[in-house]
Design goal:
Layout: E1 11-14, E2 17-20, E3 39-43, H1 50-58, H2 64-70, H3 84-95, H4 98-103, E4 105-110, H5 121-125, H6 129-132, E5 135-138, E6 150-153, E7 159-160, E8 164-170, E9 180-184, E10 190-198, E11 202-210, E12 222-225, E13 231-242, E14 252-256, H7 257-267, E15 270-274, H8 279-289
Antiparallel strand pairs: 1-2, 3-15, 4-7, 4-14, 5-6, 8-11, 8-13, 9-10, 9-12, 10-11, 12-13
Helix pairs in contact: 1-2
Length: 291
């Protein structure tokens, strides 16, 4: 018999209407379902929906709820692998446009993947201790060997929330939160950042690049908000936080909102599928838990 997930949930009265209480959540506690040997790994193909995968494995499209439970999916629409059109619509809805999502930085990540070639021992030894932490030794195949034959970038996806934060004293701080702001000192020295704080007399920018401080401020130095179109002169530029030294900046790359969301979506492509022989058992357990 078809087992429909929300049919098992209790009903409540909301705004004088009887509705399913979708705030109820349950967790399958049986140790049978904790065993990794009872699952398959499956990659969702483009445009394949959860009900289609459920039909493929359980011969019942309504058992898609098992996929949601075993993969801890709270939002069946946006946490399921999205095809390109759905993904583009999601980006536009969440960030306003594809352009904004591709131009705004979410965080910074250790960019070891940009160069996977080995480095010589002499190259490593010439590095400062600050930079040596970004490398790891390559050992010979001999299991008893301890001396490295070369070095490579340490393959760890370190993250930092931002590279630095700079504060500006301004005449007009009417900027949108997180909008990209152009910093113009003299028409030649320019930079950019994203608003992390703003009031009537002060603006702080994070995720900065280019010339954002350390340049002589003129009477016509200004900030320009690319969304609010606020254009205001600034009289001071003060570094508040600097998470990376000048020598370390080459070891980190910005991750833009679009890239981050795309990585998340690609990760959602690989799902865990419970062995079909347990589908009836798990349905019965859920029904019991929600009595």
């Amino acid at each position: 018999m078809t087992e429909r997930y929300f049919e098992k949930f209790p009903t409540i009265s909301y705004a004088n209407t009887t509705v399913v209480n979708i705030t109820e959540r349950t967790k399958i506690l049986n140790s049978t379902f904790a065993s990794p040997f009872n699952y398959y790994q499956y990659d969702v193909v483009n445009n394949e929906r959860a009900d289609q995968v459920a039909n493929r494995f359980y011969n019942d499209e309504y058992m898609s709820w098992i996929l949601y439970l075993t993969n801890n999916i709270m939002d069946p629409y946006y946490e399921w692998y999205m095809d390109q059109q759905t993904f583009s619509n999601f980006i536009t809805k969440k960030y306003g446009s594809l352009q904004l999502a591709t131009s705004k930085v979410a965080f910074y990540r250790n960019n070891w993947y940009q160069n996977i070639d080995p480095y010589t021992i002499s190259y490593y030894n010439a590095l400062s201790s600050t930079l040596q932490k970004y490398y790891e030794p390559i050992l010979p195949d001999d299991p008893y060997a301890t001396a490295p034959i070369a070095y490579r970038r340490k393959r760890i996806d370190w993250k930092i929330t931002t590279n630095s934060i700079v504060n500006y004293s301004v005449a007009n701080g009417a900027f949108n939160n997180d909008e990209v702001v152009t910093v113009n000192f003299d028409g030649i020295h320019t930079g950019r950042g994203q608003v992390c704080f703003a009031n009537s007399s002060s603006v702080s920018l994070q995720h900065v690049s280019g010339y954002t401080t350390g340049v002589t401020i003129t009477g016509s130095s200004y900030l320009y908000g690319t969304e609010s179109q606020t254009n205001t002169v600034f009289t001071t530029a003060t570094s508040l936080i600097n998470n990376l030294s000048a020598s370390e900046t080459a070891y980190w790359s910005p991750v833009y909102y679009y890239d981050y969301e795309q990585e998340q979506n690609e990760a959602n492509k690989s799902i865990t599928v419970l062995n079909p022989q347990y589908s009836t058992q798990i349905a019965g357990q859920l029904k019991s838990l929600l009595k």
